[in-house]
Specification:
The protein is of the alpha+beta class and 110 residues long. The protein contains three helices and five strands. A five-stranded antiparallel β-sheet has the order 1-2-3-4-5. The protein is globular, with a radius of gyration of 13 Å.
Length: 110
Amino acid sequence: MERFRKYIGRALNTENIRNSAGLEAIGIRCAYLSDPMEDFDEAEFRTGFGGRENIVITVATEMGQIKRVMFSEADAGNPDVIRSLAGPALERFLTARGGDLVRFFEYITR
């Protein structure tokens, strides 16, 4: 998680987030983005891992700048129910997709 700390405080580039082709090239899609973003808001992204489209990346913002990033796993039966990704599951995800995540954060903050 340390490698993502440098993105905390960076401004989101909503134009890049709305560019679905740019995100899809990284294997991530935007599931929710306010238009316009509120002073305190969240953007939600989905990506695959373990053969399913089950990972939720929530980026919480304040005044358009990243304040917190959460990695969760969506329930297979009800994708609106998510559980925090932690421990070995988080490590496996970060090991497998860490390079993609760096590209993702660089892209949404460029």
